[in-house]
């Protein structure tokens, strides 16, 4: 966001990232062109500067590798492994013993690549996933939300900031 703009919403989101008593998921939705991705990018930059950003995925229908739902969790897991040594140890062992995990269902990817390693390592972080509505896959983008919904309560110190259009399928 341009300096001095969207201050109230950015401050509200940033306060949410720091408050352990707030819900683990923040869903920002709006019509096309309302600035969701700009807000997500700005939040990611702000919390990166504070050391809170664990990983991010910015979906885009313009790029194959950024519109495929099955790339989201592996990408987030690699970013988390790069940032946190505790996560890395668990992640490397998992990938060595089960390299085909990246081809499994979204549920298994979330469970094995994200939820279990995060809970086991006890990391406190924020994960940003922007523009879910731009994913095109056999499964609808709502599949990511469904899978996240099954695990967020098990990952006690992690917050998910998500954006997308208010579409019925999402």
Q: Which blocks of ≥5 consecutive residues have pLDDT under 50?
A: none
Shape descriptor reads globular
Quaternary status: single chain
The total of beta strands comes to: 4
The SS-based structural class is: alpha/beta
Main sheet strand line-up? 1-4-3-2
Which secondary structure elements does this structure contain, and how are they paired or packed?
Layout: H1 7-18, E1 25-29, H2 36-49, E2 53-58, H3 72-83, H4 85-97, H5 106-121, E3 125-130, H6 142-151, E4 158-164
Parallel strand pairs: 1-4, 2-3, 3-4
Give structural notes.
The chain is of the alpha/beta class and 170 residues long. It is built from six helices and four strands; from the N terminus they run αβαβαααβαβ. The chain has helices spanning 7-18, 36-49, 72-83, 85-97, 106-121, 142-151, and strands at 25-29, 53-58, 125-130, 158-164. The protein has a four-stranded parallel β-sheet. Strand 3 (125-130), helix 6 and strand 4 (158-164) form a beta-alpha-beta unit. Helix 5 (106-121) runs parallel beside helix 6 (142-151). The longest helix is centred in the last third of the chain and has 16 residues, at 106-121. The radius of gyration is 15 Å and the shape is globular.
Key structural traits:
4 strands; alpha/beta; globular; 45% helix; four-stranded parallel beta sheet
Brief account:
With 170 residues, this protein is α/β, with parallel strands linked by helices.
């Amino acid at each position: 966001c341009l300096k001095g703009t969207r201050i109230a919403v950015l401050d509200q989101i940033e306060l949410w990232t720091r408050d352990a008593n707030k819900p683990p998921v923040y869903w920002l939705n709006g019509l096309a062109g309302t600035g969701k991705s700009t807000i997500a990018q700005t939040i990611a930059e702000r919390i990166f500067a504070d050391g809170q950003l664990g990983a991010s995925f910015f979906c885009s229908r313009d790029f194959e590798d950024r519109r495929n739902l099955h790339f989201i969790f592996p990408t987030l897991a690699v970013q988390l492994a790069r940032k946190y040594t505790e996560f890395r140890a668990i992640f490397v062992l998992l990938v060595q013993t089960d390299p085909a995990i990246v081809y499994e269902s979204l549920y298994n990817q979330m469970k094995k690549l994200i939820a279990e390693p995060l809970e086991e390592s006890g990391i406190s972080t924020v994960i940003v996933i922007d523009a879910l509505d731009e994913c095109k896959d056999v499964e609808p983008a709502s599949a990511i939300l469904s899978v996240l919904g099954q695990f967020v309560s098990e990952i006690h110190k992690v917050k998910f900031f998500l954006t997308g259009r208010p579409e019925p399928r999402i």
